[in-house]
Amino acid sequence: MRVCVIGTGYVGLVTGVCLAHIGHEVMCIDINEEKVKLMQSGQSPIFEPGLSELMKSSMAAGHLQFSTDLKHGVEHGEILFIAVGTPALPTGESDTRYVEAVAKGIGTHLNGGYKVIVNKSTVPIGSGDWVRMIVLDGVAEQQKVPVAAGQGPALPHPEVVADFDVVSNPEFLREGSAIYDTFNPDRIVLGSNNPRAIAMMQELYAPIVSGRYREQPGGESVPVLVTDLSSAEMVKYAANSFLATKISFINEIANICDRVGADVTQVAAGIGLDSRIGKKFLQAGIGWGGSCFPKDVAALIHTADDYGYDAQLLKAAVDVNNRQRQLTLEKLQQVLKILKGKTVGLLGLTFKPDTDDMRDAPSLILIEQLNRLGAKVKAYDPIVSQSGVSHGLTGVIVENDAMYLADGCDALVLVTDWAQFKELDYATMAQRMHSPIMIDGRNFLDREAMIRAGFQYLGIGR
Ligand code: NAD
Ligand code: UGA
To answer: Strand locations in 120-268, DSSP E?
Structure first.
């Protein structure tokens, strides 16, 4: 099928590349010229395991192209994905201005056969109908034949047709395992009341639904849930809010464990074996961050508020998370007492491992607070240190090596659970430090091994 993906960020690029890999003809459109040039040269502007390789092979097979020309993209695609960002406004409300610009642009260029316009971006409940309205606004603009000033009102353009439907197809991929998640999804959700649009979406996803692209080929087929538009939009917010609340729950339990002398990692194992609870997303630590949980929980609270409902549970999940982000600082104060004049080394900067994404990363808050309290901050991150991209970081010295990070530090804080951090030579690092203290913000390291390496070790809730 012919597909156009508008917005080539973590979701759009992965979606475009994966759909091209399974044989569709994909054109990816982005407004950022520099990014498009980079992609046209076969390079991925983001780090995501396996993405570059898949991108290159799909381009070589002639299934994948990149452009800044929306008109070209709209003409090309039978299915048009909107995958632009929807960041949070200061009120918590979702900022839908990029979706609006794209919807309007699609309308302006819509001409010809039937199209399915897909909301892949996470958009507030009710956005499906709103996108339809904006697209029609764009169509109306296109239908006015331009006239010279003073020559009467604009006239309708006779040949423009606007035959389209809007589908909500929320995305559930995680950064760091986006390709795996796309080919091995737990479910695909399609929200629309229109059978023709749903049939086209089912045809598009058929190769993935069959299980053919699962890590274990021939694996189970993927469940497809067809809902109305608003329910599909709500599924996305409910899923992210549930997962964020689950993490806040285990963090709360961790804080109680700290006080009563229990170990939250053992408690998580104990409750996780209950199939009604499940063992995933029970890793206590420094709190949830990233480009989605914080903004999506905030947006759902805001939507509830718009309808006169006080979403108390979600607000509590956010409060616990904000408090959790202070915890590593409190632990540093417990052991070092005064932070002014001390040097703290951060292991990891990105909001989670296997990504270069720094949006709402817990490290950013820690850097700011340590700076405010007069500490010198250094950091080592497997991606940020190698990329040479500053990510707008200030108040932190980014080292190229974990050993240099250790040099002269009064304490280390493990902020991101990169797999490489299990393998570091902690005994040598301890010797290079001023005082070998490790605050493990992810309960990631082996406590006994760290003590043997010479560290005073503090985890979260252990
Ligand atoms: P992103 O910020 O990484 O990428 C957005 C892209 O859209 C950028 O490349 C930007 O240049 C482009 N863009 C902006 N305006 C445009 C326009 N008018 N025309 C063409 N391109 C335009 O965003 P993201 O992280 O990929 O998220 C996209 C959406 O998907 C958001 O709504 C997000 O909530 C949702 N989502 C994200 C993830 C994730 O893991 N990042 C997962 C699920 C859902
Ligand atoms: C999350 C969801 O998992 C995806 O399903 C969703 O598509 C995506 O948001 C989105 O809407 O953007 P992502 O943010 O990439 O994906 O990463 P997660 O693995 O969910 O981690 C989110 C945050 O929670 C990270 O800061 C992570 O360190 C933290 N986390 C995760 C914990 O603190 N404990 C856990 O047990 C799991």
So the answer is: 144-145, 155-156, 164-168, 188-191, 224-227
Pick the closest to residue 229 from 126, 121, 133 (CA basis): 126
Alpha carbon distance 304, 297 (integer Å) = 11
Using the 8-state DSSP alphabet, how is residue 316 labeled? H
Instruction: Tell me how far the alpha carbon of residue 413 lies from the centroid of ligand 2, in angstroms.
Output: 20
Å from CA of 12 to ligand 1 middle:
6
Could you tell me the distance, in angstroms and rounded to a whole number, from the CA of residue 210 to the centre of ligand 2?
A: 26
What predicted TM-score, i.e. pTM, was given to this entire model? 0.95
Q: Show the ligand 2 pocket: residues with CB < 6 angstroms.
A: 122, 171-175, 240, 243, 247, 281-283, 285, 288-290, 292-293, 351-352
DSSP output for 50-96:
THHHHHHHHHHTT-EEEES-HHHHHHH-SEEEE----PBPTTS-B--
Write out the chain's pLDDT in tens, 462 residues: 999 999 999 999 999 999 999 999 999 999 999 999 999 999 999 999 999 999 999 999 999 999 999 999 999 999 999 999 999 999 999 999 999 999 999 999 998 899 999 999 999 999 999 999 999 999 999 877 565 666 665 555 555 568 999 999 999 999 999 999 999 999 999 999 999 999 999 999 999 999 999 988 667 899 999 999 999 999 999 999 999 999 999 999 999 999 999 999 999 999 999 999 999 999 999 999 999 999 999 999 999 999 999 999 999 999 999 999 999 999 999 999 999 999 999 999 999 999 999 999 999 999 999 999 999 999 999 999 887 666 778 999 999 999 999 999 999 999 999 999 999 999 999 999 999 999 999 999 999 999 999 999 999 999
Q: Which residues are catalytic?
A: 292
Domains and CATH numbers, the chain: 2-227 (3.40.50.720), 248-462 (3.40.50.720)
Paired with 64 in beta bridges are 26
Q: Is the CB of 8 under 6 A from ligand 1?
A: yes
